[in-house]
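Sanity check

After download, print the first record. It should look like this:
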Amino acid sequence: MCARREGQLSDEQFTDFAEIASQQTCVTVYGKLVRNTEFSSKSSGLTNLSDPEVTLQMAELVGYSEKGVCVTLEEPQLAAMPAPTGPANGCGWSSTKYVVWENQPKDWTTLHLLPRSKNLYSILTTRPSQQIKDKIIRATDVVSVFEACISHVTGNTSKIDLGKTLQNYGFDTQHQVDTFSTFVIGSEDFGVPHYGFSLPKDALTWVTNTTQLGSLLNFIQNTAVPK
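Expected structure tokens:
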């Protein structure tokens, strides 16, 4: 019979159920802060899931870890982030040169910038290609989809606030949320198809009543394709 030797195991060899659950919905990010770039989340139109009054700061993101796997970005990305958790503590990133944002919600909507050098006149005279515009469903159309689908499920006809969640509009059960998602994806009368776009049938299986409408809008714009 084999003897149990739990006393010889270290704390690092154990994990918690809460940590396992967070790995499904959160990601840990590594990077550097950009000096003198602080701004209010509320005044910018961005809403942090945990605190709408939080101060954000631009950061150069260099990598992340998800489910124990470390990933280094091919190119650093510039994005607005809340205050970091502290100095980097994993994935080989130096604690003296980098910081870490632990357990950030994957569906949190932030501001992503693509810094590039262009002369002033080219910036002023640049016009978005109509072809590109036509490939992305308009935000106003997605809001109209939300209004119609919410009304059909819960009867709530309040004006859409992208900072709120489905729960704020009367969604108490996952069944209601799934019905809402079915309308968004499949309704030719008032869903995404009504505006000439389509979504995969399983695209919204991740949505719950705590999903922020702004995050859902962003996801739909990034996922929906012209029919």
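If your output differs, re-run the checksum step. Summary of this record's structure: The longest strand covers residues 26-40.
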